[in-house]
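Risk register update: the risk of archive-format incompatibility is retired. Evidence:
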Amino acid sequence: MQIGSFRSEEVEELVEVWNRSLTADPISPERLEARVLLDPNFREELCPVAREGGKLVGFVLGIFGEGFHFPDGPSGKRAWILAVAVDPEHRGKGVGSELLREVERRFKDAGMKDIWISSYPTAYIVPGVDEAAYPEGMRFLRARGYRVVSQAISMDASIWPPELPEWVSEREERLSSQGIHFLSYIPRLLSAFRRFLRSHVQWDWEWLALRNLSRVHEGTFSPDQFILAVKGEEVVGYCQYEGEHFGPFGVAEGFRGMGIGSVLLGRALISMMSKGLHNAWVLWTGGDAARLYSRFGFRESRRFSILY
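Archived output:
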């Protein structure tokens, strides 16, 4: 077995191993390139691959904030493992262990101190490891010292036929009487929206919202995919969706518990229905948000573990 670094001409081989190994999370070369390989922080040397007889049989996909750093790791000492895969025919031969040791060594040589097995903030594919889908993988990672630090829930809902609970409209009317109104994004709200994002949501949600706002002007994202809650001249809540994927959404701290999140979600689902969509899903949620989703018919579909 030889350990080397990924090369772009091997992308078809890597995707083949991915899809044979990570069967619950199939991927295409195009999606891998768009989500990871084109990221400014991606470095081929942080993707060690194992070859036997010249054939790629396993890989680890690693990344850290080199091109730009992240607020939750301003010193640039956090690294992520996005995927570990070994072809089923080559398991039990130490391939995965050798690949994991190699990527850890490369992270250490680059000055990284924290390694998370989780999604990467600006371009994640899945939140973490699906324990139900990959019990063997979880045993492998635990045996090498990684521990579960949190969990993420994916939820799905059928939004057909197009109907919402009556209490959503009643809540919107009550909020309207309090001066809180709901509308799609319009350019005059840009400054207020940016103030809200900077002050009330985590930085990667801000990054995603600004990226999608730029897409509005490119014609690849519609303004009505943003729903804003506005009081006076200030934005106090927002949500967004893309295709059947809902989220993220957030509400300013002083306005939580008023039902704004419920109306934002309801408004977004109505917009999705109007575009002919029959389903909606969220990739990463939990706690109060998961309970809110359940009131709109969302049900847990997968549960992911984030390891450290």
